[in-house]
Automatic annotation (TrEMBL):
High-level lineage: Bacteria, Bacillati, Actinomycetota, Actinomycetes, Micrococcales
InterPro entries xrefs: Peptide/Ni-bd (IPR030678), SBP_5 (IPR039424), SBP_5_dom (IPR000914)
Pfam families: SBP_bac_5 (PF00496)
Entry-linked CDD domains: PBP2_NikA_DppA_OppA_like_3
Protein name as catalogued: ABC transporter substrate-binding protein
Length: 503
């Protein structure tokens, strides 16, 4: 986003117009046509993973709060990867470091306290001082000032064209002051602003949300959400078949054929599965050995056998859910001739995603057919993350949501494939890649940054530090008892105020 006055004005006007459309949609959209706010029906949903951090919004548990529509951010990401208003009605960048957000009037937190600039400042200050801070703040430091009752000014330590994207992350949802308790405990129970109020959490088993009748937009059509945490995929599918659940997250491939086809909706994800090769030490420090591993792998076989066709073979790191990726993709072919024979490698992955150990078996066969000697190491993710980050394995099968933190694929590439990247499983440190990424990170969101993203992808793949495998689709189960359940490729929304009983 440019800092010129004309562009600032255009941004403010566009966001104000979007705000009007958003409110108009709330007033006359699907939720209203279904009698939004009047029903007594509650929706039953089976979720894949229980909370890992007691629903601390500065953790990945924030995405549950977002999918439940209980916690809201100042702005949010659209399906086109643009920013639209939510708790802020407009914003402008007044200089390289300073952004001013105008806040929505008439909003209250679930505990009855008013939403205002002081509350926003408190949340953002809590986030910046938290250890570790939310990943959405990686690479930038913020200072905040309430410059009016309904105006917050945010200043960054370095120019940061991604600030609105950061503030759209569910990890920066605005909660009331009561959420922030002694000892670093943060509770979203009764402290959000969304159409549903979180009223109870039963450990790793269930969560209960009730409609918040004083919501600033159209009240929710559902009286509430009864969430069950069901890590076993077979059990999630069974809950849909038995009528115990109206919706179920992530139906395993093995269960899809057991459901009514009208109950399964495949959604392309902003998630890619790939093989990261340790380019710093061990056998894959040799570019020719990396090229040999890449040449040995056939992603289409993995899609056909493990996913039974319910995924897409990948040719790059940026998935087709990113609307502009395919048109801008460059030459991603290997730049090195392959050469390897009798090379012993460790192949690691984790059990948290059921398909990854199966992929490991398939890759072992393909790599051994090409002359590699493969030893597998498969564990729960929590028991191997430190080793992965320290380069403890030769190769790791990974699944990554490329938009998880900022909704910006270039930030994901910076995090995973640059010298200073904080999640660099491939241990890649290449000056050419770093130069492309660093230049791109200075660009505003738009066509030039998109092209820089795809140029960086090409540079990374030409080095064979990573072998693309699969672009994921998620199979979302819906019993047909409710309408307007979100099918979100970015994994941020599911049940909203518009979700209503089927007529």
């Amino acid at each position: 986003m440019s800092t010129t006055p004309g562009r600032r004005l255009a941004t403010a006007v566009a966001l104000a117009a979007s705000a009007a459309l958003l409110l108009a949609g709330c007033a006359g959209g699907a939720g209203a046509s279904q009698g939004g706010g009047d029903g007594d029906d509650r929706i039953q949903v089976s979720f894949m993973q229980p909370p890992k951090a007691a629903l601390n919004p500065f953790s990945d548990d924030a995405f549950k709060l977002s999918r439940w529509s209980t916690a809201e951010t100042l702005v949010r990401l659209t399906p086109d990867l643009e920013i639209e208003p939510l708790l802020a009605t407009e914003y402008e960048q007044v200089d390289d470091l300073t952004w001013v957000f105008t806040l929505r009037e008439g909003v209250t937190f679930h505990d009855g306290t008013p939403f205002d600039a002081a509350a926003v400042q408190n949340t953002l200050d809590q986030a910046t001082s938290y250890s570790p801070p939310p990943r959405a703040l990686n690479g930038v430091a913020l200072t905040t000032e309430a410059t009016g009752d309904m105006e917050i000014t945010v200043t960054t330590d370095v120019p940061d064209p991604l600030l609105p994207n950061r503030l759209a992350s569910p990890q920066l949802s605005i909660l009331s002051a009561a959420a922030y308790q002694d000892g670093g405990v943060i509770s979203p129970i009764g402290t959000g602003t969304g159409p549903f109020e979180l009223v109870d959490v039963n450990g790793s088993t269930t969560a209960t949300l009730d409609r918040y009748d004083d919501y600033w937009g159209e009240p929710a059509a559902a009286a509430g959400i009864d969430a069950s945490f069901v890590p076993d995929g077979t059990a999630r599918a069974a809950s849909l078949r038995s009528g115990e659940a109206d919706a179920a997250e992530t139906i395993p491939v093995s269960q899809i054929s057991l459901l009514d086809p009208e109950q399964v909706f495949e959604v392309q994800q902003s998630r890619s599965t790939y093989l990261a090769l340790n380019s710093e030490s061990g056998p894959f420090a040799d570019p020719a050995v990396r090229a040999a591993a890449r040449a040995a792998i056939d992603p289409s076989t993995i899609v056909d056998t493990i996913y039974e066709g319910h995924a897409d073979p990948s040719v790059g790191l940026i998935p087709p859910a990113i609307p502009w990726a395919e048109d801008l993709r460059g030459d991603v072919a290997s730049a090195t001739d392959p050469a390897a024979e009798g090379v012993a490698i460790t192949l690691a992955t984790y059990t948290d995603r059921a398909e990854l150990p199966e992929i490991a078996v398939q890759l072992e066969q393909q790599l051994e057919a090409a002359g590699f000697d493969v030893t597998q190491d498969v564990r729960e993710y929590v028991n191997m993350e430190a080793e992965m980050l320290d380069g403890g394995f030769d190769a790791v099968i990974m699944s990554r949501n490329v938009l998880l933190d900022t909704g910006d694929p270039l930030s994901y590439l910076a995090q995973d494939f640059t010298c200073d990247g904080g999640y660099n499983i491939a241990q890649l440190c290449d000056p050419g890649v770093d130069e492309i990424v660093a230049a791109g990170l200075q660009l505003p969101v738009g066509p030039e940054r998109q092209q820089a993203t795809m140029d960086a992808e090409a540079a990374i793949l030409q080095l064979d530090a990573v072998v693309p495998l699969v672009h994921d689709r998620v199979a979302q189960g819906e019993a047909g008892t409710w309408t307007n359940i979100e099918r979100d490729p970015f994994e941020r929304r599911l049940i909203t105020e518009l979700t209503a009983p089927a007529e």
